[in-house]
Amino acid sequence: MSLVLDAAAQDLLFREARTANTFTDEPVTDEQVRAIYDLVKYAPTSMNQSPLRITLVRSPEARERLVRHMAEGNRSKTAAAPLVAILSADNEFHEELPHLFPHFPQAKDAVFAERPVREGSAALNATLQAAYFIIGVRAAGLAAGPMTGLDFEGVRKEFLDDDHTPLMVVNIGRPGPDAWFARNPRLEYEQVVTTV
Predict the structure, then answer these.
(1) pLDDT, tens only, 9-26
(2) Is the pTM of this model over 0.85?
(3) How far from 70 is each of 20, 31, 105, 166, CA to CA, in Å?
(4) Contact at 8 Å (CB) between 58 and 131?
């Protein structure tokens, strides 16, 4: 059985997709980011929670503040990328549920009244949305450099608030010279899938 998605799209989104480590200086526009979001917003989350929040770091001053919170090996990449996005989970996502999940509007209070429940669900579903976002960046013909080597609490204090939990930082742009490390191995189907 073959996949419905054509081979070129499979390559673009998955087989040839890599984490970019260098970028050209070609800008990433707001229109490109909007197109990415307008595509990936349709991908599923539990109860349509949609807790991902995106903070675009564009100004030189904000970039300097962010670079200070990156792990040393990620600082130069983040300083040079045309666009950097902080992806976070909104722990107050439940406030939008009456609109986003209208056939069960009471879910806001019946399921997500307690903060620890919201935090766990927001982290899981926003991380899922972060993966969609990275695929959307690739669908736009751009490269993504997602990173979790950072001071999460420092980023939260610098750019977010107590209701948002940072998940990762993603550098975005056109790949530059020597953008890719060698492809690492992947697990095979038999190593991952169990039938019971």
Answers:
(1) 999 999 999 999 999 999
(2) yes
(3) 16, 27, 39, 13
(4) no
Rounded CA separation 138/181 (Å): 17
The two three-digit tokens of residue 34, written as one number: 């909007």
Residue type, 86: I
DSSP three-state, residue 13: helix
How far lies 41's CA from each of 107, 140, 184, in Å?
Answer: 21, 14, 30
DSSP letter string over 51-79? Answer: -EEEEEE-SHHHHHHHHTTB-HHHHHHHH
DSSP 110-153: HTT-SHHHHHHHHHHHHHHHHHHHHHHHHHTT-EEEEE--B-HH
**Which amino acid, one-letter code, is at 188?**
E
pLDDT of residue 174: 97
